[in-house]
Amino acid sequence: LILLACGSFNPITNMHMRLFELARDHLHQTGRYRVIEGIMSPVNDDYGKKGLVSARHRIAMAKLALETSDWIRVDPWESEQETWTATVKVLSLSFPIKILSLEFISHHHRIPLHSKAKGIAKTRKPSKYRNLSFPFVFPVLPELKLLCGADFLQTFKTPNLWKEEHIKEIVEKFGLVCISRAGSDPAHYVNESDLLTKFQHNIFLVKEWIQNEISATQIRYALCRGLSVKYLIPDSVISYIAHHNIYTEESERKNEGDLLQPLKLH
């Protein structure tokens, strides 16, 4: 499996990174999967969320935070598009789900995947999928799943935030790995949705036994007030924020009163 997390990461916190570790442990314990890579995909600036600072800074902070990880990386593709990209499209363009070719493009060269499948020809044609670098040559095609927190499931109920066909494609074709959070009941969110219940076999609910309620929003508020956020986010990120003076009362007013881009479109 490859785990992909989409979000603001504004700023990246220790809890964002914990999501990946918790998900990997859970999936390994099932005995059915091996997680080979984790990818963070910060949202495009055009998303319009209140207080959302430039993707340039959010990408830089994520890269600093993930320097200590040997399997999670940040991917700037989504943030570099001309406008906001729907999550289902980010998933679809992250990985060739339809097996037309077993060649993947790394950042520097092609890495062919060994396969016993018949009739799959290697091609030199450019791929429409974004560049992905893998540390291994795989005997099987890895699956991609969307990693999220429990509150993510609740957003499916927000009118006009999601298209139903997008939700269906995410849970049917890819699947969700959802980490619990205090005050959220992901099993309840699944049970009260006919669509999620239908594909609950492809939704993995992971219990976080060590409650950690670090919130990027609360961290921004603390930074605006000059309060310490040490041990909540990596020291390298704290230094970057201080050097660039990113989170201020002015930055927190950015996009204030605006609708999120998907609400405008839908």
Automatic annotation (TrEMBL):
Biological source species: Leptosomus discolor (Madagascar cuckoo roller)
Q: Which UniProt keywords apply?
A: ATP-binding, Magnesium, NAD, Nucleotide-binding, Nucleotidyltransferase, Nucleus, Phosphoprotein, Pyridine nucleotide biosynthesis, Transferase, Zinc
Task: Indicate yes or no for the key word Transcription.
Answer: no
**Self-association and partners:** Homohexamer. Interacts with ADPRT/PARP1.
Write the protein's name: Nicotinamide-nucleotide adenylyltransferase
Q: Which residues form the Cytidyltransferase-like domain?
A: 4-220
What are the EC numbers? 2.7.7.1, 2.7.7.18
Q: What GO molecular function annotations does the UniProt record carry, in alphabetical order?
A: ATP binding; nicotinamide-nucleotide adenylyltransferase activity; nicotinate-nucleotide adenylyltransferase activity
Cofactors, names only:
Zn(2+); Mg(2+)
State which pathway it belongs to.
Cofactor biosynthesis; NAD(+) biosynthesis; NAD(+) from nicotinamide D-ribonucleotide: step 1/1; Cofactor biosynthesis; NAD(+) biosynthesis; deamido-NAD(+) from nicotinate D-ribonucleotide: step 1/1
What's one GO-annotated cellular component? nucleus
Q: Which reaction does it catalyse?
A: beta-nicotinamide D-ribonucleotide + ATP + H(+) = diphosphate + NAD(+); nicotinate beta-D-ribonucleotide + ATP + H(+) = deamido-NAD(+) + diphosphate
Localization (cell): Nucleus
In terms of domain of life, where is this protein from? Eukaryota
Q: What phylogenetic lineage does the species belong to?
A: Eukaryota, Metazoa, Chordata, Craniata, Vertebrata
Tell me the Gene Ontology biological-process terms attached to this UniProt entry.
NAD+ biosynthetic process
**Which family would the database say this protein is a member of?**
Belongs to the eukaryotic NMN adenylyltransferase family.
